[in-house]
From TrEMBL:
Source organism of this protein record: Cyanobium usitatum str. Tous
Biological classification of the source: Bacteria, Bacillati, Cyanobacteriota, Cyanophyceae, Synechococcales
GO terms of molecular function: metal ion transmembrane transporter activity
Pfam families named among the record's database cross-references: GDT1
Protein name, UniProt field: GDT1 family protein
Claim: Transcription is one of the keywords in the record: no
Family indicated by similarity: Belongs to the GDT1 family.
Amino acid sequence: MSSEPDPSANRAGSWGAAFLTTFTTVFLAELGDKTQLAALLLSAQSGRPVVVFVGASLALISSSLVGVLLGRWLAKVMPPQQLERLAGILMVALGLWLGRQAVLGLVPSPSDLPLS
């Protein structure tokens, strides 16, 4: 009897862990975001929830495919720690940019100010 671990058991566990982590992360990230609100409004306006569901699902699948393929390519050209750091920097930069846009939207432009 061999004391070596069964490689198929490790592969099955890693598949399940990757699937569960991905599903949970994407599901929680998408709850209440602009995409879900857009689908809600489109469904209400069109009165065709099945068509809106299929369209939104295909769009999410397509954008996820782009992310997966880009991630696979990036994993080949840089180490995981560098990729993680880059993703973090990108998220912080995006947050700062969106925050700046929101603040600029609150400040009236000079053309909106009444003339004295």
